[in-house]
Each structure stands twice: as C-alpha cells, then as structure tokens.
Amino acid sequence: MEPVSGQLSRIMNLAQHQLEMDVVAISEFAAERQVFRALLGDGESFGMRSGEGPLLGEAYCKRMSRGLLPNDISDTSADPRAAALPFTAAAGIGAYVGVPVFLSDGSLFGSFACFHREPHELGERDVRFMRLLGELITAEIEVMREHDEARVRIARLIDSATLDIALQPVFDVHDGRFLGAEALARFPAAFGSTESVFQSAAAVGLSVPLERLALGCAITTLETLQQGEFLAVNATPQVAFELATTGEKRPELLSRLVLEITEHAAIPSYADLRRALRSSREQGLRLAIDDAGAGYASLKHVVELEPDIIKVDRSLVEGVARDRARRSAVSAFVLLALDIGAYVIAEGVERPDDLEAIRDLGVDAAQGYLLARPTKDRKALARWQKFGQPPPRSAHSPAAANGLVVSARR
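RESULT FIELD:
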C-alpha cells in the first residue's frame, strides 16, 4: 500500500480519539505474517513497525478474525487466551479492540485494531464503532491497492523504454496540403485509453517520467517526415523546460518541432517558461497552445506566451456550422492570432459543414476524423505526403461551385 491517504488518517484519528487508545493499526494478512500497513500513535513502543508484524499464528487480529479471540479485550491479563500469547508480553498490550476488514469481493484483507498499554474499558458499542469505521477503510484500501497496481504497471512500461506512436495529420483547409502531424502515444489495450493512462500516471506520481518516454518515442518519428513538415508533441511545462534545455544542442530538431502546451496545464511562472524557451524558439521551435477554448486559461496562455500556433479545441469546432456562439468564439481566436502573427488549427473536425464553416471563418488548418484518424501505419503517412487530403464539401456548399474559399489571412 502507498502512504496513508488523508481520508484514512482521519478515520484512524477518529478511532484513537473516540476510544482513547494508544495505537491504531491497519494490518494485512500476508502469506505467513500479519503486516502492519498503517500505524497511528507510538507503535515503536509496542514493537510495531510499518511493513513488519508477527507470525499469523501469534497475531491477535488473525485469531480475532477466526473467532479464537473476542473483538474487545479490556484487560489482557484477565483473558487466558490473550495472556498466553507471546505477543501480549512482547508488545506490552493491556487492552485491545479489533475487527476484520473485508474487501468488496468478500475476501479477507486483514484487520483494523486499537491497542492500549494499560487495561481499558471496552464493550460492544466500541466494537460496533470499529466495524463502521472498518467499512470506510475498505473503500480507501481498495483505492490504494489500485494505485499500487497502477504504479507497478506504469513503472514497468517506463522501464521498457518503448511506446507506440500514432500520427494524426494536419491539413491546410484551403488546398488540402499535408502540413505535419501530431504525435499521439498509444498503449497496450490492457492499459486503457491514452488519457486514462496519463491520469493514472499523474495519480501515482509518474506522469513526468511517462511523458519523457512519450516525447522521446515521438521524436524518433521525425525521420519519417519530409523537410518543411512539422511534428507536434504534447508537453507539460516541466517537460517543456527540459526539452528547451536539451534541444538547444540539436537545432535541426527544434526547427521541425511544434511544442503543444495544453490549455489545462498549470504554468507556475510564464516569465520563467518564456526565458527557458527563448533560445529554442529563436532556433526554430514553434510553440502551440493546445485545447484553446476548453477552459479559462486559454487567453492568458496566448497573451503571456504569444504562441506560433493556436489550436482551437474540438468543443468549439463541433457544431460550429450551426451555432452562432461557437462561430463567434472561433472568430475571436482567429482575430487574436492575426494580432500576434499566429497560425490557427481546428481540432476534432468530424463534419463537412463544420470544416466549411471554419474555413470561412479564417482558420488555416485542421485535423480530425473527417480528414484522417490517428494511425501507426507509416504507409498512410506516405499517402498524405504525396496526395494531401482535399477537404470534403457538401453538394450544397457555395464553395463547391466557386472553388476554394480563401482565408482573409492568406
């Protein structure tokens, strides 16, 4: 189990305060031992240490769970069963109350127990209280076990140093030219979706190592791109700092990369990030604000970082042809891009009429399932490079009869 969660600490504190006991322990019944997984109070004075514990045959809690000891013992010296256990004298236990902890599948995990140095008045009411808290503990333990399992899986993935990368093309919305591709990490099916894997990695403190691996694997796909075509990679501010530091030694790499900072990423200091990226941007690294419009940070990111590219989030693109508010929002980003000399890419384009609408609004390029899905097939990349992807049009579109609509920015 990982370090005790805040909720678990609160439950243990409640037990200690309410029952006025010296030590509170959550134990797991392992192969041959009762292992203390969480301790509150002076466990050392009882000889109790996290990750250690007595043999199951000598353990209070295991015997309690099997009905060989009662749930509450107010005075161990007055109970022959408890007094006879070596652990009673070794740990100096005067009183005890405990309940078994079962997981949601009905399996026995271990116990939740309190110990006191001296005899201490306990009763059935205290046992009921411990059972109630034990039910709350079960949910916390299962979350912690899930985190442990996720940490092991993700750590192994990182140690493997290999990751599949899918590419999703970006096309010019006016002439269909292939401009570049966004690199997207892909994990084995057993891991779940890409988003869920990165969320799990963040929850167990492994998001940065996983992101470093994804970035490194993505950069290897640069060799499949031709001169003038870009590779867009996603990075949090921390990894962006690292790329700026190491990338300065490889200017030929920087000139072909687009670094996407997500709208959702917290940036502790815009000034520090600007300084870190200045040299790299002077050598050709392009900066993009991803998911623009998905939340409240988009405008601040754009104003503070003055990116080369603004990527409009799919939440604004989907339905833009039929929604005045969405059109106004996309137009606002186009006008903002004009002021700072940036390029606008629409994400998540899935309908022909939405593609026509963003073209008419002055968006420069697009990516989405309507144009091409992300793929690991490098033959698809070769086709995009050779033939591009003429944007589909509906039969009723004025543009279908009059030719390509030219952006006001072009």
